[in-house]
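Moderator note: this is an archived Q&A kept for reference. The question asked for a predicted structure of one protein chain; the sequence and the answer are reproduced below.
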Amino acid sequence: MIRFILALGLLASPAIAQDSAETLAKKMRTGTPMTAADFRAMAEGNTITYNNRGDDIYREYYRPDTNRVVIEWTTPSADGQINCDVGTWRAEEEMICFDWTRSGSVCSVWVDFQGEYISELVVDGQRRGNIEVISDISQTPLYCELGLVTIMPVPDITG
């Protein structure tokens, strides 16, 4: 549900913030569809940030060797806390679907357009035109506990 609400706005990264809705839709149509294996290769062990015209909206951390995912919204709740949820992801036909503990299920179709990862929300089998673009992929994990998120530093293994 929360991902659906966030998807109601057109999300774009700073690099493509100038892209019109029409351009994003064209990229969605002409990009290479991502399979579950493609999605896992892109997401596993990474934190993915979605951005709306320069402002980070939310991040998802995909735990290695599992289908578990943590989502964090950077906009604090009314009580000033950063909200999060935990869930799992799964492939369903050509979609990647998320089953969140608190906010329900949501599915999207994903494409790789020349190195840009783009998704479009699917509701009741229909593409909704709500396009999300990944603005950053990092290896900094997120941890969700009782509605709070902790960002843990990546350990230095060089020394």
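Archived answer notes: The CA atoms of residues 12 and 52 lie 5 Å apart.
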